[in-house]
Write a structure and sequence with these properties.
By secondary structure, the chain is α/β, with parallel strands linked by helices. The chain is built from 10 helices and 10 strands. It has a single domain, classed as LigB-like (Protocatechuate 4,5-dioxygenase, Chain B), CATH 3.40.830.10.
Amino acid sequence: MAKIIAGVGTSHIPSVGAAIDNGNTQQEYWKPLFDGYGPARKWMEETKPDVAIIVFNDHASAFSLELIPTFAIGVAEKFQPADEGYGPRQVPVVNGHPELAWHLAESLILDEFDMTIVNEMPVDHGLTVPLSVMCDQPREWPCKVIPLAVNVVQYPQPTGKRCYNLGQAIAKAVESFDEDLNVVIFGTGGMSHQLQGERAGLINADFDTAFLDDLTADVDRLVKIPHTEYLREAGSEGIELIMWLLMRGALGEEAKEIYRHYHVPASNTGAGLIILENEK
């Protein structure tokens, strides 16, 4: 049967993708951040997952304020890099895994999660930057990908608890898929940052560090964080961290931290990366 072997939490900062694409990763500003990605890339290369479920948020590339799905799963064969106003990133096309994606969609909907099924979806930096963080610049991505988009832009967003519960349902669905596959699930976005208003540029390293700690030490505290606390402590875009809870919910209770990297500033964001292996 298929199984989720690990989870990855990572920021999906667009300027990180630009630094990679433009060959700037060893510049003085970027070098400390990218040096910390090395062990994670080695882990990814050694682990060789068959499929990555990447939980991300769309940035007005596939969806807009005319259509805002709370949870949307991509079931296509391929997903093209999106043009976000400056041309698509020159990265490989994302190859999907339609059989597992459709199995997940059916299982989750019958498990009473209202998933939007997407047959065609360009994927923006929310998905491609995490792949670059973990895989660098390959000729093709080393695993199949199932995109799972979450609304973290337009109120009302789902709660952290709802995301965590969806992660648990995904784990159950993966384990009922009758093919031997090693699956890694990514939770992306964050960490603390605010892009507009009087607090633009806010970074709360204490909040971010406590969040990373409690992915293993006190998950119950994290799933109870309300929207208002994310807004107050982590900035208006800090709520993206609920997508990390979806990843965490897909792992067992005793998930083990394998690697962590945290760096500020990365553009105007607290950049976090964590790898958790499923003890079960």
